[in-house]
Amino acid sequence: MNHIKHVAIIMDGNGRWGIKHKKSRNSGHKEGLKTVEKIIKVSIQNKIKYLSLYAFSTENWKRPKKEINFLFNLLENFLLNKISEFNKKNIKLKIIGKKRFSNKINTLLNNSEKKTFKNKRLQINLALNYGSKSELIHSFNKINRNKQKINEKNISKYLFTQNIPDPDLLIRTGNTHRLSNFLLWQLAYSEIFFEKKLWPDFNENDYNKILKKFKKIKRNYGNI
């Protein structure tokens, strides 16, 4: 039976859920936070050590400004309300991506990371302003500046996920079958599960079913 150390999730479908149920994309983003809390709870129950959540991509800046502002207000409120709870539950928060936000958001993100740095029960890698292509360019530039060899070890060394094991599995909700520039290097041997449900409809039972399926998969890593 496969041990699960790291789960990555592309939380797709918030906007579509909001249009369908409330005629507002923003209401879907708000509802999606409830699913995040459910998935964190199940991850802890299953003793998963790393949970990577794709929250905002480098491409998401193309969205309407009002929606972007709403998303970052949601993020701000979530962190302000949840960091003390993260500490109580021994949860560590790490931001992956380039912190090119307002001074207020950057300070909040940095403080949240510092406050939870020593926690060890679960590490949540929150991908914000993240794009795998720019991450790889960042890594190659670091290798070049340090006059090092280009090899797998050095590329991994300078990724935003340095010292984090590669995901065992990726889940994408929303009935969309693509990776959308998320952890392209790290997902090389991950099992991928595409889920039809939109993210706000994804629940604990759905998550547990996928975890059980993963545990029964024979993983060869190129072998037979």
What secondary-structure arrangement, pairings included, does this model have?
Elements: E1 6-10, H1 14-22, H2 25-45, E2 50-57, H3 65-88, E3 91-96, H4 103-116, E4 122-130, H5 132-145, H6 152-157, E5 169-172, E6 191-194, H7 204-216
Parallel strand pairs: 1-2, 1-5, 2-4, 3-4, 5-6
- Looking across the biggest beta sheet, what order are the strands in? 3-4-2-1-5-6
CATH architecture: 3-Layer(aba) Sandwich
User: What is the alpha-carbon Rg in Å?
Assistant: 17 Å
Low-confidence stretches: none
Number-wise, the strands total 6
The structural class is: alpha/beta
CATH topology: Undecaprenyl pyrophosphate synthetase
| Total domain units | 1
Q: Termini, distance in Å?
A: 17 Å
What letter string, H or E per element, gives the SSE order? EHHEHEHEHHEEH
How many individual helices? 7
Strand content: 15-25%
Helix content: 40-55%
How many strands, which pairing sense, and closed or not: the largest β-sheet? 6 strands, parallel
Shape, principal axes of CA atoms: globular
CATH superfamily: Decaprenyl diphosphate synthase-like
